[in-house]
Amino acid sequence: MNILVANLGSTSFKFRLIRFDGAGGASVLAKGGYERVTDYGRAIDDCLGELQAAGHVTTTADLHGVGFKTVLGKNLTGCLRADTDDRVIAALDGFKEIAPAHNPPYALGIARFREKLPGVPLVALFETAFYQWVPEAATRYAVPQSWYDAGVRRYGFHGASHKFVAERSAELLGRADIAERVRQLYRAGATPVPAGAAPLRIISCHLGGSSSVTGIRDGVAIGTSMGLSPQSGLPQNNRVGDLDSAAVPFVMKTLGLSLAEAERQMTKESGLLGLSGVGNDLRDVRAAAQQGNARAQLALDVFVQSARHWIGAFLLELNGLDALVFTAGIGENNPDLRAAICARLDQLGLVIDPAKNAALRGTEGEISAANSRAKIFVIPANEELVVARETARCIAAQS
């Protein structure tokens, strides 16, 4: 089975073609992408042309499905057919103001694939799907009921990444029962029940251009640092992260900003960029900090402090920990940030091994010390594999 994973951004289109063999193994046949996209129809045509020229997809019969890592849908989540269910595009349109960089491109992309590949199954895996079973108390804001009824609540994002961590960390810890539970989460009508054996407690740190921390018990999310939108939680690359709501009217009055300009600054000029003043790429921020730039060092310190804050929150909620996991670009490639986040946590059972940590960049491995009660892992992100797997399962279930 050949599954094309389509990742659409505000001005980009990236793709990966994944083949599943009869035994369930997966291999990447092709990958690529385009930047500064203004015409998604043209980009999709170019993608299909590349795959045809390479001999991977000579006819539509060679392509068994297209999967989309959709972000946020109004009144809709899960893993759903997007070619036969008109609710998917309607849900994306319903929350386009909350996720303006993601929802409009995905709605347009799905519509284009419908036109270009009639008869090929299209599947939307919402990033919020992993958080369907979070307790209500962890999803609610203290706002009027009318706000909640309009959709104001915590949703959570990076769901595919955290789901992969939940499954892979269970395998590394010898808990095949939990790994299988995670694999079956999105089956139609599935409702997770408490695992029969000892509980498995994981904290997953997806640290990258955008970052989030998620607490996971027995393979199921219990809460996450992101909320209504991907703008919240940890400081993002150029997005503010958590902010007191009173700050918005205050700066509008004090600095004479319009609502649109205040929103633009919070989403384009804040985060690591706003704190450091040197850029929104952590590599640039680290380089400036190493050269003595105090603002750049402050940006790193704020990022670490926020990560530790959320790890601490989930340590309490989980009543302990079996593994702390670092994933995504920053989490996988920055031993110094991992060390700073794990510093002085020995009384909580977390001790990092400096040598193992320093040696591990971009590959899977354990970096906890021998006397650490909880494991500390680096697990490279593989969101595309999760999207492809769930797309294949969704199609198979409806065949």
What does this structure look like?
The chain is an alpha/beta fold and 399 residues long. It folds into two domains: 2-125, ATPase, nucleotide binding domain (Nucleotidyltransferase, domain 5), CATH 3.30.420.40; 185-383, Nucleotidyltransferase, domain 5 (2-Layer Sandwich). Helices cover 40% and strands 16% of the residues. It is built from 15 helices and twelve strands. The strands form two sheets. It has a six-stranded mixed β-sheet, with helices on both faces. Strands 9-8-7-10-12-11 form a six-stranded mixed β-sheet, with helices on both faces. The protein is globular. The two termini are 13 Å apart. The model has no long low-confidence stretch (mean pLDDT 92).
Number of domains: 2
- How many helices? The count is 15
Q: What is the radius of gyration?
A: 21 Å
Low-confidence stretches: none
Strand content: 15-25%
> Under the CATH scheme, which class of the largest domain?
Alpha Beta
Mean pLDDT comes to 92
Note the gap between the termini. Answer: 13 Å
Based on the structure given, which CATH architecture of the largest domain is correct?
A: 2-Layer Sandwich
What is the overall silhouette? globular
Helix content: 25-40%
User: How are strands sequenced across the largest beta sheet?
Assistant: 3-2-1-4-6-5
Structural class: alpha/beta
CATH topology tier name of the largest domain: Nucleotidyltransferase, domain 5
Oligomer: single chain
| CATH homolog superfamily of the largest domain | ATPase, nucleotide binding domain
Element string (H = helix, E = strand): EEEHEEHHEHHHEEEHHHHHEHHHEEH
Main pleated sheet: 6 strands, mixed
The count of DSSP E runs of length 2 or more, i.e. the number of strands, is: 12
